[in-house]
Amino acid sequence: MWSQSLIRRWLARVSQSQSTQQPRRQAPLVGKLETLEDRSVPAMLVYVDDDWVGTTPGADPDAAGPATAFGTDAFATIQAAIDKVSVGGTVIVNDGTYTEAITIPKNLSLLSVNGRATTTIQGLANLNTINVNPGSSGVTIGGVGKGFTIIGTDNNSPGLERAAVYFTGSHSNATIEDNEIRAGGEAGLVTEFGLAISNFVITGNEFSGTTFVGAKAGGSGFGTQFTEANVPRQLVVMGDGGGAVDAKATNVTFTNNVISGTAGGLNASNQEQGNNLVTLDVSNSTISGNTFDGTTTRFGTSLRVRRPGTTITGNIFNSDGLSVATGHLFTQNISQSLADLIADNTFDRAAYVQGQTTGTISNSLINLAAGAPANSVILATAGTFKGDIGVKADVTLQGAPSNASIIEGKVTFFTTADGATLDGFTVNPGVGKQGIYLNANVQGISVLNNIVTANGDEALETEGDVDNLTVSGNLFQGTTTGPLVYINGAASLGMANATSNVVISSNTFAGSVGGGTLLGLESSGGSITDNDFTGTTSYAALEIWASGHTVTGNTITPDGSGTGILISKNANSTGGLVLGLGNFVSGGIEAADGTELTLATDQSIVGNVSVGGKLEVKAAAVIDGDLSFGAMSNFAIDLGTDGKFSPVTVSGSLTIADGAKVGLAGTHVPTAGGKFTLIDAAGPATGNFNVGSPIGALELQQGHATEFNTVQLWADYSDGFQLANIDSAEVPSVLFVTSSPTNESYVPGDKFQIQVRFSERVNVTSVPRLALNNGATAIYTSGSGTNTLTFEYAVDLGQTTASLDYNSSSSLILLGGVFIRGAATPAQSANLTLPAPGTTGSLADTTNISIVAGAPVIQSITTPAGMGLYGPGSDIYIDVGFSSSVFLIGSPVLTTLQGNATYVSGSGTNTLRFVYRVLLASQSQDPLTVTGLALNGGSITNLAGESVVTNSGLFPTAFTGVVVGIPGPSVTGVSVTSPLGTYVNNQQLRIRVTFNETVQLTAGTVGLLLDFNGDNTPDATASLVSGLGTGSLTFNYTVVAPLNVSNIRVLGLSVSGGQLVSVLTGNAATTTFEPVTLQGVSINAPGTLVTGVSRGPFTPIGTYQDGQTIRIRVSFSATMLASGTPRLVLSNGGIATYSSGNGTGTLTFLYVVQPSDLATNDLRVTGFNFANGTLTPAVGNPPLDVSSLGAGITVPGVTIA
After folding, report:
1. Residue 401 φ then ψ, to 5°
2. Phi, psi dihedrals of residue 367, rounded to the nearest 5°
3. Which one of 109, 192, 606, 880 is at 20 to 30 Å from 730 when CA atoms are compared?
């Protein structure tokens, strides 16, 4: 019934609503009520209550209430009230369920008392629940807190479209607000197709229900929805179809709605059958702030828009109810591209084709990967994409930054996908499926920068013959019993062509594979570069069916007992495996019979090396373990043209089986009659001992046994070849002194290294010096703990020599009497005697190094310029220092990456000054980098006329911090483009930031930082709405209560995931500026407040003791929705539990006094406890502001004893 307090509150709300929201309607309301008694003319304000059924016409149905006479201004049905209300009047409906089919034939407002939670209109079969007749220009259905739940019904005839709310014919100025419009087998909201509608406001509603009946949808495809029964309808449809010109439907505001209904499912054949959830084919309209969270299947979308002038911003699109074949959004003819729509709205996950201005933003990668045009780039946002993906064309799948695009399924490249790329995803395939799989014969696939987690099967596997495969920058992890990554060579499948040209680079193999391998590679040709093998295996980190692979820069340190590198052989293996620069191998190497392994550069190998085929050594190698050769193996150490070779150091034992061949290879021409000798601790093992000391040797560190069996002679070179087992009792001694490169001329200013090689590892506890024959000294730099000590020589003036050597056999000098000692225990002081100068093993013997005098050389390149950005027209001075005074003639220049620097001054001194003037063409922002000195037809000489040495190790010299180029864009203004004034909850403040040139984002997002407290700390971020590609960006800030701000300050821009750059130059914009206070705008957005506390019913004034119940009423400034059992916190430690009042502005709580509660004569409500429930203001109201309780609000008249 209509209580007095309810009537007063409702009248106040209606009066305010009509004065602020409906100025076109007649007022004042109070005057109408005063003249309402006993009249027969239509009323402007009529009341409906289903409790009045059976009331005698003319009787006052609510006594002192607002209604006066049943049948005049009081009715039991909504339709009866509509029929009698005046044009422009208001129909007020009390709580209840009204089962009727309503027709609205005139302009009016249809409002409920307490909102949609308590007021329901249930439709009748085969009819529209609410039908608005043609020609209306001001129909309102619902309002904030005054809406309805409107339930549609099914229609038996598919040719007649029905809806919960249906506008027949042409209409304008309609408002549909704060309702739940629930489909019941037909549509939710429809305007008649092809007819004119304009200025509709549809806001704050929920569109729910199902647009077909039963568990199964009818038909297959929605093209038959008007001829076949139970084909899903659309939940909301407005307008007259797609087109590039303005529609008859125009200026629709569709904001802050929730779309939760269902427009699709499975049909009787268990095939997907669905329709679009919302179609708004309306021109010049706004779609903003909505949440699309509905369900559909087949080819439906959450939103379809196909007319120009419409903007889609600030919406939330969720995928939970969408099948993989559907889309979030389909557009045509609007100005926003798909990329704009991604930036302007929020998607839990989305994918689209880069560069498309219209089309579908999908919630899945499945259809795009299978059906996108060749050469497309498919961009995925952050989010989780479920289901297996099949790539069937030459497309690029590009994930979001930081691998935030997650594929929960398997990615398969089919044979039609030649050239396709998968870049930047996280792939979690699930149990027992490969993460990434390549079908046989697919070519040119790139797998880049992904994180792939195995779960019982390979992270990456190829079927065979997948030529030109690139796998780079990935992290492979997870657990499997087989290989973590397996590149199949196809031979095992009986294919004619094997996989070739595979590039494996910069990956991390971190999984756990048990008895499998981290990477199995069965291909011919290709490279394995800069990878980290850190996973766990008891078999091998890297298994290669070696066929011409190059392995460089890898760190192979498997966890477990597995081998570092396992080289296997099959019918397709041709060529060998080459270990190039920069590898570190732990776990050793095992090479099967018939394989080939080449150590092309210096190697460090921890673990045993077992050779079944050919091992060719072209550089120094350190093997911290055993080295063994099988009966069918070959061991070749390459000789240079001078007959010298690099040493191999083995810390463990050397075993050479019967039948193995050991010898020398390379380009050296042997001398006839030479002998080959193996020596161990007991003396020569075979053949004759060659007295000449070899330059290098295979060295077995002391304390290890050596087993030599019968050895076949493979080469017979006069230089000899020694496998030396150094007795632990021997004193470490110098074997030779050398440098690399061996044939070089150096000038003052150059630096190079000299190596002193000992017979075993030595420890250095001082800084040794090496005295040279030109009066110079080389200083020790490194090598302690090894058998090679490195010295550095910096060439200075006056140190010329035609053949560099040391002074004498005692030129290795220790300072302070500290000795170089051997690594064995007990340590032996090393014998520092060098080979006599000019004899075998001396520096002059092993090298041909000269120090030439005199031509001036560059010793320094500096600039007096300070750090900063130098724009067009700026001069930057560069000073070049030489080893002697120089004289300049003509116009030599310094070359830089940015252009030439011209001579300024300094001729006759040892420093020349040049100047570089920044050109307009220098658009990029890079450090000024000097790359060379060009004489340019002139000359730079010393006094003797010797020309300067223009080559220098100082080139290039980059002046870090001295940056040249055009400055990036900067902010020139900040202004408010929305109306000036005070903003309240949910209103949008629009701010424009102007730049001095056009800007764009390389990737990611940009926001505007706002300060509400004056402390230069961001309190909120305004979101970018538009402007990329122009000189000004527009941002929106949606006010979120509670908030009260008089000075809104803009602090700067925040860019995440990319850069804001100039469109013209690509240079980064300056995103910081002095804080700007926005003039003429403020925020006054209080939250929903606690307006009062009182005693509830059956709670008289008095004193209450343990076990007694007190009812406490709390009043709010808005309707509150209670869920669960929220509680009040009381000042005496007590707790009151929610009891009743849900959906009203006053809630009742029960407080049972407990023995532990404190006695008080001032019981106050001090807070809320939401551990067991929630309190939420009704839709359209701001959040609850608990601070309105202050220090507590007293429960009047209550004392706790």
Report:
1. -55, 150
2. -70, -35
3. 606
Q: By C-alpha distance, which of 1055, 1070, 1067 is closest to 1003?
A: 1055
Residues 820 and 771: their CA atoms lie apart, in Å, by 17
Type of residue at 439: N
Q: Which residues contact 504 (CB under 8 A, 6 or more apart)?
A: 471, 472, 487, 519, 521, 526, 527, 528, 529, 531
Task: In whole angstroms, give the CA distance from residue 1035 to residue 262.
Answer: 34
DSSP code string of 899-958: -EEEEEE-TTSSEEEEEEEPPTT--S-EEEEEEEEE-TT-EEE-TT-PBPB---TT-SEE
- Using CA atoms, how far residue 147 sits from 113, 150, 176, 182, 879, in Å, is 8, 9, 8, 13, 80
**The pLDDT of residue 244:** 78
For residues 297 and 274, the answer to whether their CB atoms sit within 8 Å is yes
Angle CA(948)–CA(952)–CA(957) in degrees, nearest 5?
Answer: 125
* C-beta of residue 432 within 8 angstroms of C-beta of residue 458: no
pLDDT value, residue 821: 56
Helix (H, G, I), strand (E, B) or coil at 4: helix
d(CA 102, CA 82): 9
Residue with tokens 């011919």: 524
Count the neighbouring beta carbons within 10 Å of the beta carbon of residue 889: 12
Beta strands in 68-148 (DSSP E): 74-75, 90-93, 96-99, 102-104, 109-112, 119-122, 130-132, 140-141
Would you state the pLDDT for residue 868?
A: 83
What pLDDT does residue 572 have? 54
Least Cα distance to 1128 among 1090, 1177, 1087 occurs for: 1090
Beta pairing class for 661-666 and 634-639: parallel
Give the residue from 329, 340, 274, 332 showing the smallest Cα distance to 303: 329
Residues 6+ apart with CB under 8 A from 609: 588, 589, 590, 591, 615, 623, 625, 626, 627, 628
Q: How far is CA 1132 from the centre of its chain?
A: 51
Q: What are phi and psi of 5, to 5 degrees?
A: -65, -40
CA distance 44 to 39: 12
On the 0-12 / 13-18 / 19+ scale of CB atoms within 10 A, 270 is exposed
β-partners of residue 830 are none
479 DSSP 8-state letter: E
35 CB contacts (<8 Å, ≥6 apart)?
none
30, exposed or middle or buried, with CB in 10 Å at 0-12, 13-18, 19+? exposed
Q: What is the side-by-side strand order in the sheet with 788-794?
A: 734-738, 751-758, 788-794, 777-782, 769-771, 812-813
Is residue 585 within 8 Å of residue 604, measured between CB atoms?
A: yes
The amino acid occupying position 522 is E
368-644+660-672: which CATH number, 2.160.20.10, 3.20.20.140, 1.10.3430.10, 3.20.20.70? Answer: 2.160.20.10
Residue 371 parent element (H or E): helix 366-371
> 428, 407 in Cβ contact below 8 A?
yes
Residues in the chain: 1201
In this prediction, residue 984 carries a pLDDT of 83
Q: Strand, helix or coil at 978?
A: coil
| Per-residue pLDDT at 226 | 73
What's the CATH fold of domain 1090-1200? Immunoglobulin-like (2.60.40)
- Tell me if 129 sits within 8 A of 122, measured CB to CB: yes
Confidence (pLDDT) at 823: 46
Say if residues 409 and 429 touch (Cβ distance below 8 Å).
yes
For 515, residues 6+ apart whose C-beta sits below 8 A from its C-beta are 481, 537, 538, 539
Distance between start and end Cα atoms, the chain: 39
Residues 971-1085, CATH architecture: Sandwich (2.60)
